[in-house]
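Hi Q.,

Before the meeting this afternoon, I wanted you to have the protoporphyrin IX containing FE prediction in hand. No need to reply - just skim if you have a minute. The sequence and ligand are here:
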Amino acid sequence: MGSKPVPGPQGHPLFGNIQAMAANPAEFLLRTTNDFPDIAHFRLLHIHYYLVSKPEYIQDVLVGQHDKFRKSRRDIAILSKFLGKGILVTDGAYHKRQRKMVQPAFHTSRIQAYASTMVDYTNRLLDAWEDGSVQPINEAMQQVTMEIVAKSLFDADVAGQAAVVGHAVESLQQIAGMDFRVQNVIPDWLPLDRNRQRRAASDTLDRVIREVINERRKTNEDKGDLLSMLLSSEDEQGVRMTDQEVRDEAVTLFAAGHETTSNALTWTWYLLSQNPDVAARLHEEVDMALGDRNATLADLPNLKYTAMIIKESLRLYPPAWVLNARDAAADVLIDGYVIPEGSSVFVSPYAVQRSPHYFDDPLMFNPERFSPENEKLIPRYAYFPFGGGPRVCIGNSFAMMEAQLILATIAQRFSLSLMPDQAVEIDPLVTMGPKHGLRMRVKVRQTIVAHQP
Ligand code: HEM
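Predicted structure with the ligand bound:
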């Protein structure tokens, strides 16, 4: 029996759909999912892509048949320039071993210890906000999530150096973003500004992280941070990671661990500004749960509506709007469709989570979708902002706890409103943020008598 033909959007005979993809890749994928809700085929120049959107098929790609796919060579070529062989960019047995070595750093008991760091850094940010001032919320969220990941990864060691590390990672991420926009991978040896900047940032990053690792190896002290876990972790043979492996995993966690969360929070503030009734309920919950004292880990169960808001925001604006493309390592059969060896597969949380095929009134911001009763009704893999299967986001719980604590702490002290002249548009790069930033006016909340540090 022959395979079923895969439908798809019309494209240019030579270039395929590259023009639409280049203009706005997230919108192109959304349109394609809307027109072809199960699976679609299209071409970007000579490369064949399959956009898989039906939740059961996504599960097949990420879980059931995940071993038949490799992360796309192109994505890996770009990202490994600064992530080395970190878990985000490796496959197969090596990925499995490294993932097992990194996992203990994310055990619940371990990440819970970071709750106070999250609240303290947020309060420090808010102490600098003047009543009635206009704040660039995207930059503020970026700063606070970066400080939190630096502290959680390296404890105090890089307190002074956190900004240096952060700056280096940010410029490497920006350069990777530029690399993604061109179809061919730029060779390192070309005398381009981009290559020079990449080398300078890599050298800085390597120097600082090496110094920290050397210091730690000497004392062997568990500082309670993620780095201590990476250094002491052992594989099944009792072998620890080399310095290079620890460096690569640390940079990976640093890079993967802040831009995503900061974009999630930025979009949440935007959505709240457009939905004042939801914002009012958030303030109510936070006032009830916290009064004027600092949030702690123990408050999380009483901040359920806060969590529902974040989940709904991750539905409409998933920072990882498309997962890294996967290359089929063999012909893969999904429900009678063949994805031929060598072709690439996209799965896009943005496209599926906004599709009317999978959500009623999909563009409406409605945190009630994630009430305990309703959440159960969402089909598996119709909602997957953290991916799934053996490569599911390792920082998932860390990120949810962080977003909940930061959102609650800000809402406790301030109300935010969007500046009327603020244009809002998505910018789907490596992660998806707002293209024109997000300036908001911040007002101290009068219901809070005084903030007790
Ligand atoms: C709201 C915040 C976050 C979102 C939306 C997010 C999303 C994702 C997604 C979708 C993937 C899967 C990528 C794929 O399969 O191609 C992923 C992987 C990953 N994430 Fe996150 N992430 C977030 C926060 C974090 C944090 C806080 C950390 C670490 C501190 C982190 C570390 C990682 C790592 C290391 C991977 C690679 C896992 C692997 O391939 O084995 N992420 N993330």
